[in-house]
Write a structure and sequence with these properties.
The complex is a heterotrimer of chains A (320), B (315) and C (405). Chain A has 320 residues and is mostly helical. Chain A has two domains: 48 residues; 231 residues, Orthogonal Bundle (MetI-like fold). Chain A has 14 helices and two strands; from the N terminus they run H-H-H-H-E-E-H-H-H-H-H-H-H-H-H-H. Chain B is α/β, with parallel strands linked by helices and 315 residues long. By secondary structure, chain C is an alpha+beta fold. Chain C has two domains: 120 residues, Pdz3 Domain; 227 residues, MetI-like fold (Orthogonal Bundle). In chain C, strand 5 and strand 6 form a beta hairpin. The longest helix of chain C has 39 residues. The chains are: A mainly alpha (320), B alpha/beta (315), C alpha+beta (405). The interface between A and C is large, with 89 and 85 residues.
């Protein structure tokens, strides 16, 4: 086959070849352009993000990097007149919230995927799949609206019920619920694909050995789809870490103090970037790029860590 | 099997929806004074926050979060209103025009927050709405300048005052109607549909400013009003700061929701003035027995001297 | 037997858990839809979609020779309406699309002096007062002005107490989302115009031309990394690169549609590239070989054979992209800004439906109702898009299966 191809290709006119080369180069340049965006983004965030640490911010003074990363008060002193910014407590709460929301969304999402792929009767599976897909495509701002209108009230009433005085429901718990609800469809969709692609023969083998259908589903199917399910978890974490508008409507804007109290207010890296941004110069503006930089690093580190874990988990995976 | 599973699903959904519905209708009626006060505030860029903090004698909290009580909650205007409809033990503040039946507005130093009390200067928790113009002759053209001068005249007429009052702010007293003074602004008798006048400055005054220009447009030859509100400090910068006023963001009229200060006062006083007052109201949940607060009470709450409602109510 | 029973119970529980888990999604969707409809249905009407956000105002006066109507209404008026026999006009209290109190004209008697009024502005034609206008105020000589915020009853009482008026101001209904819908459409068009050629081109290169080597692998992983970047970071990038760029090159003064479209184009790049590449991959190699074999060069093959077969995939990518544009908020808050405008221009500030919600939630006046109404519109569009994607992909699947069999 290649020989005949070559023969016909040689027969092509020279003009065709020139067009081919031009076309190839155009496509190449588009590919290079697309792949360079990430470098541009990382570059600009880095360049803008380090301004508060490297310049004296028009006389206010350099922001101390160590203090910025470890401190427990967002800003001490007047806005635009102080360099005492810290996001240590925000980094901690961001990670805490992400883990908690994953603890809810991961089992629920994976079990839903299992249900759709293996347990549910076909008609029900079809309905549920549509439900999950619709949920996945609902914009985050609508989740935020729902959070502000419904979840805040439920959390407030719930804490009153257990005798705790909640701050209007603005709390870690509300953020976790909103994020979990948002990430469940993501996790479900990807896990379902992974579960579906598990080799039928493995399943049949398990059934033949006398395991019940349910045992097979839980022990064999899930563990064979491990790698794919792990990918789903990674994407879920990414979505939780990066969500901004929906979270900011239920977080309560905590400005100081490490707190892991589920019913107390909180802030995440994204909400602190979004809140109160009106001016377009000065330290209070530049510092948001620094927060963005930290967010990028946090995401990168989490991804590296999870991928390392995935590789170790994935090795056991039997596939074809 | 299929039918059973479908039935179970529908049942579960039904139960949950019912449970949610039932839960939202239960609210306690007793007010527990031993609870701590949940302090709600706007963020540091908000003009309402500046007005409130300065009004209660806690000016350092206008742009600094770290002087506030530990554990305060930052919400925007909608957030403060909707959360205080839920949170029985919270306190917050909004503009008088935003107050509705879902929350309870407090008297300030014994004076009820009403328009009458703001105009007769007994209600103290308020901030001014100011305007600033470009230097004479420094407009894109003479027609724009003439329209701007006519607009300022309109602001101090009773017709302008009506519009200000109608949008929730409180106009300064005036005696003349626009009909009585319009003869000295002949620009308004011609067709100005091709003329754009640029308005900017404080964003908390945007709604009032838009209502004013919307009312003034048909009165002055249907000129076009372009609103781009960014913040009080831009009222000066975009009309008179030599570095900015002639760039693309330059404005013909700038609004500010605080008194002018520092370099802004160097602008000739004929080019700036006040058009209205905006009252800020401290609000609590409707179940809260509190009806009146003093500036000192509010400062004590916001700086953290009073941590529980008992501390305030038993006083 | 007992062991078997135990196992059955265990299985039952496990299965029950999967049922429970799946109800979570169902309940969430139901709750969101119920909430959004419950809060927003009141404002949902056709006016909302076609109306301007800002209203058009008029100022007018009665004709000098007007005569009082002194007439009973010719139609039955609802109990909520206030009718003045003297003036022959019925008003009612209402709220506009922003939730603000307004006074609506409900009925004007044919003999009413308000039937036709004199334009006090520069217009020379008399204005016919229509029932879809809101009255802002009616001013009198030496009598307190009747403002819309004092209600319809006050206005009718004031009218009845006076024998003439000084002026009446009224306006068209405002608060509509036409501008935001237009902006969303503009943005969709512009973003796709930028992102589709680049994305599809890049996908073609990666799938049709790229040698299998390190550099290609690197390019792929760089593009793939874009998917993990949160939209707020894209927003910062837009703010730092595209906004200054467009401000310098065009008449824009801040965030604008072009900077927004550029930012969105970068966000969509990985989605478009991946979906297109996947659809390119399933184009059978025989097609390419056949095309080359009949003498077409590679470019012709790509454009005339490969791309058409991959068209459904590209269409899916486009629809996914549209869905993302409609839902995006965090990035656009930075890259365009939150001002709601009626005049949509490429270099102007105006905003999309999702940011409209954000602006409503964060700005004065407080307004959950309108936000919920816009959310209904967004959910509606998104569901329609989903259905179209499903139809395309199922058709496509059938076609492919038909072709292969």
């Amino acid at each position: 086959m290649p020989d005949t191809l070559n023969y016909y290709q040689k027969n092509n006119s020279k003009k065709g070849l020139i067009i081919d080369r031009i076309a190839k180069n155009i496509f190449l340049s588009m590919a290079i352009l697309s792949s360079s965006f990430i470098i541009i983004i990382a570059g600009i965030i880095l360049v803008r993000g380090i301004i508060p640490f490297t310049t004296d911010n028009l006389g206010i003074g350099r922001v101390s990097l160590l203090r910025f990363l470890t401190g427990n008060t967002w800003l001490i002193g007047q806005t635009f007149a102080s360099n005492l910014y810290s996001i240590g407590f925000i980094i901690a709460s961001t990670l805490f919230i992400t883990i908690l929301s994953l603890l809810i969304s991961f089992p629920v999402g994976v079990l839903t995927a299992l249900f759709i792929a293996k347990v549910a009767p076909p008609s029900l599976a079809k309905i549920l799949r549509t439900v999950v897909e619709t949920l996945a495509s609902i914009p985050s701002i609508v989740f935020g609206l729902f959070g502000a209108g419904v979840i805040l009230k439920i959390v407030y009433d719930f804490s009153a019920l257990i005798g705790y005085q909640s701050k209007g429901g603005n709390s870690i718990l509300s953020v976790v619920i909103v994020l979990a609800l948002m990430t469940i469809p993501t996790i479900t969709t990807i896990s379902e694909v992974a579960i579906r692609s598990v080799d039928q023969s493995i399943e049949r083998g398990s059934l033949a050995l006398g395991a019940s259908k349910t045992q097979t589903n839980f022990k064999v199917v899930l563990s064979s789809a491990k790698s794919g399910i792990f990918t789903a978890a990674i994407l879920g974490i990414g979505r939780s870490l990066g969500e901004a508008t929906a979270v900011s409507l239920v977080a309560g804007g905590r400005r100081s103090g490490f707190s892991f109290d589920l019913l107390d207010t909180t802030s995440t890296l994204t909400t602190i970037m979004l809140e109160g941004l009106k001016e377009t110069t000065g330290i209070d503006y530049d510092i948001r790029f620094s927060v963005g930089l930290v967010l990028m690093v946090v995401i990168l580190l989490t991804n590296l860590l999870l991928n390392a874990v995935k590789r170790r988990v994935g090795v056991v995976n039997v596939k074809e | 099997m299929k039918k059973i599973s479908l039935f179970i699903m529908i049942l579960l959904v039904g139960i949950t929806v019912l449970a949610c519905g039932a839960q939202t209708t239960t609210t306690a009626v007793t007010f527990d004074e031993s609870k701590s006060i949940n302090v709600y505030t706007r963020d540091t860029t908000s003009g309402t926050r500046t007005g409130f903090m300065e009004g209660i004698g806690f000016a350092s909290a206008a742009t600094s979060d770290s002087v506030l009580v530990q554990g305060f909650i930052i919400k925007d205007n909608t957030g403060i209103l909707s959360t205080l409809a839920i949170d029985e033990y919270g306190i917050g503040y909004v503009s008088l025009s935003s107050v509705n039946d879902s929350v309870k507005g407090l008297n300030f130093n014994g004076v009820e927050p009403t328009e009458v009390n703001v105009i007769n200067d007994t209600y103290g928790l308020k901030r001014p709405f100011m305007y600033m113009l470009r230097q004479d002759g420094d407009y894109p053209n003479d027609t724009v300048e003439a329209i701007v001068k006519a607009f300022v005249a309109f602001l101090s007429s009773s017709d302008g005052g009506d519009i200000i009052n109608n949008s929730g702010a409180i106009a300064l007293p005036s005696t003349q109607t626009w009909d009585q003074i319009k003869s000295s602004h002949t620009v308004c008798t011609q067709n100005n549909a091709a003329i754009t006048v640029r308005f900017g400055g404080s964003d908390s005054i945007q709604k009032v400013a838009q209502a004013l220009t919307a009312a003034f447009m048909p009165k002055c030859g249907n000129f076009i009003a372009e609103h781009d509100h960014t913040g009080s400090s831009d009222a000066y910068k975009r009309t008179n700061d030599p570095a900015i006023k002639d760039t693309a963001v330059g404005k013909d009229v700038g609004f500010s929701s605080r008194f002018f200060r520092d370099a802004e006062l160097n602008v000739n006083s004929s080019l700036r003035g006040q058009l209205a007052w905006d009252a800020i109201v401290a609000i609590v949940h409707v179940n809260n027995p509190l009806n009146n607060v003093t500036a000192a009470d509010l400062k004590a709450i916001y700086e953290g001297s009073y941590l529980t409602w008992a501390a305030l109510l038993s006083k | 037997m007992s062991k078997n029973k135990k196992r059955m119970i265990k299985d039952g529980i496990l299965q029950g858990i999967t049922y429970l888990s799946s109800t979570v999604s169902l309940i969430t969707l139901l709750a969101i839809v119920l909430f959004v409809f419950g809060r927003g249905y009141k404002l949902l009407n056709f006016d909302l979609i076609v109306e301007n956000f800002e209203s058009q105002g008029y100022v007018a006066d009665l004709f000098d020779d007007f005569i009082f109507c002194d007439c009973p209404a010719t139609i039955d008026l609802s109990d909520d309406f206030y009718y003045s026999e003297k003036w022959g006009i019925a008003l009612s209290d209402g709220t506009d699309l922003l939730g603000k109190n307004i006074i609506e004209i409900e009925y004007i008697h044919p003999d009413s002096p308000f039937k036709m009024v004199q334009d006090k502005g520069i217009g020379e034609e008399p204005i016919i007062l229509r029932t879809d206008y809101d009255i802002i105020r009616i001013a009198f000589e030496d009598y307190p002005t009747a403002l819309s915020r004092y209600g319809a009853k006050n206005m009718i009482d004031s009218l009845n107490a006076n024998n003439s008026i000084r002026e009446i101001e009224f306006r068209t209904k405002g608060g509509g989302v036409r501008g935001s819908i237009l902006t969303t459409i503009y943005l969709i068009g512009m973003t796709l115009m930028i992102a589709l050629p680049i994305g599809v081109g890049a996908a073609i290169y990666l799938n049709e031309y790229a040698p299998i080597n390190r550099i290609t692998k690197l390019m792929r992983s760089l593009i793939e990394t874009l998917t993990g970047v949160p939209s707020i970071i894209y927003g910062l990038m837009g703010l730092a690169i595209f906004v200054p760029l467009t401000v310098n090159l065009t008449s824009a003064t801040g965030g604008n549609l072009i900077s927004g479209a550029l930012t969105l184009a970068v966000i969509l790049m990985p989605v478009i590239i991946r979906t297109t590449e996947e659809s390119l991959k399933v184009v059978p190699d025989e097609y390419r070989q056949a095309s080359l074999a009949v003498g077409a060069n590679k470019t012709q093959t790509t454009f005339k054979v490969v791309l058409p077969s991959a068209l459904p995939g590209i269409l899916t990518a486009t629809l996914l992209a549209i869905g993302r544009i409609i839902g995006e908020s965090a990035a656009l808050v930075f890259a365009i800004g939150t001002s709601i405008k009626d005049d949509v221009s490429l270099t102007g500030k105006s905003t999309t439906l999702a940011v409209h919600i954000w602006a409503m939630m964060t700005d004065e006046p407080a307004n959950i109702e309108l936000s919920a109404t816009i959310a209904i519109i967004i959910i509606f569009i998104v569901v329609i898009l989903n259905i179209i994607i499903k139809i395309i992909s199922s058709r496509y699947l059938k076609q492919k299966m038909g072709a292969s069999s």
